[in-house]
Structures are given as structure tokens and as C-alpha cells.
Amino acid sequence: MNNNNSDYSITSELLKEESKLKGVIRKWVADQHDQADVYQETLTTVIEQHQQSPIKNPIAYAITVARHFAWKLGNRSFEVYDESSDLRESHSAEDSLLQNEQIEKIQQVLNAMPPMRQQVFIRRRLHNQSREQIAQELDLSEEAVKKHISRALAQIAMHVDF
């Protein structure tokens, strides 16, 4: 397959999922102009990466790239993307309300955590950093990182019904 066909293929695949990708970006970035910038940067990055090495799941990769660009903008109040929520046929108003309440509870619990625990948990769960990476960057042992993550999960579980 030549490069132009490959670029066309990945571009058309991304455009099929345009509303999904833009919806995720809207959750993470408030300003419409910033949303457009994140979307364009995401498409460009995914296409450029695909030219270097084929991407098996372009939309999943695009969502990861978009999250990175949203984070770089400094908008750290976004939630983790959960693809399963897009697979549901419909949401009742009650389900949506319950989900929003759970998100608010989790945010409150996160805000009440000791700063180091909060930072370790966010790096692990939102930014997908390895425990080893977190330990190195924060000058902690891997065991300390593991304990912070466990305690954060326990603290969240105590306050949120899943």
C-alpha cells in the first residue's frame, strides 16, 4: 500500500469517528477555539505517526493524543475517557445524573487527599504513567507509589458507590 492510500485510509477512518473524538475533546477542553486546536493537532499527530508506523486502532490512539494535548493546555479538570459509555444505546436522565454525582464525589475525594497521594494517583490513573516512572520523577520508592495508589483507591471506594 502506498503512503497516499494509507493516509487517505486513516483520515477517512478518523473522520468516521469525528463526532466521537470531538465529543471527548469537549469534555476536556472548555474553549471552542482550544477544542478546534486540539482536534487539528490530534489529527495531524495521528496521521504523521501512522506514516512512521501503522496504527492498529486509530480512534483509540487519537483519543490518547487528544487527552495529551488537552492536558498540555492546562485543563486538568477532565475525566478519564471511558469508551464503554459510548457503546450504550441510550442513557436515562437518572443514569446520567447518577454518573455526574459519582464524578463529583470522586473529584471531592481527590481534592481532599494528601497532595502526594493525589499526585501519584492522578499520574497513574489519568496520565497512565508506570509506577517506576512515578517513583523516579517524585523521588519515591516503587513500594511507596504502590501504597499511595492503594490508599487513594480505598479512599475513593469508601466515599463512592460503584
UniProtKB/TrEMBL annotation:
Keywords assigned: DNA-directed RNA polymerase, Sigma factor, Transcription, Transcription regulation
Family statement: Belongs to the sigma-70 factor family. ECF subfamily.
Does the record's keyword annotation contain Transcription?
yes
Name listed for the protein in its UniProt record: DNA-directed RNA polymerase specialized sigma subunit
Checking InterPro entries in the record gives:
RNA_pol_sigma-70-like (IPR039425), RNA_pol_sigma-70_dom (IPR014284), RNA_pol_sigma70_r2 (IPR007627), RNA_pol_sigma70_r4_t2 (IPR013249), RNA_pol_sigma_r2 (IPR013325), RNA_pol_sigma_r3/r4-like (IPR013324), WH-like_DNA-bd_sf (IPR036388)
Q: Has the keyword Transcription regulation been applied to this entry? A: yes
Residues in RNA polymerase sigma factor 70 region 4 type domain copies: 104-155
Looking up NCBIfam families in the UniProt record yields: sigma70-ECF
Among PANTHER family, the record links this protein to: RNA POLYMERASE ECF-TYPE SIGMA FACTO, RNA POLYMERASE SIGMA FACTOR FECI-RELATED
GO BP annotations of the record are:
DNA-templated transcription initiation
Per UniProt, residues of the RNA polymerase sigma-70 region domain are 19-68
List the record's Gene Ontology CC terms alphabetically. DNA-directed RNA polymerase complex
* CDD domains, sorted: Sigma70_r4 (cd06171)
Q: Which GO terms describe its molecular function?
A: DNA binding; sigma factor activity
Q: What is the lineage of its organism?
A: Bacteria, Pseudomonadati, Pseudomonadota, Gammaproteobacteria, Alteromonadales
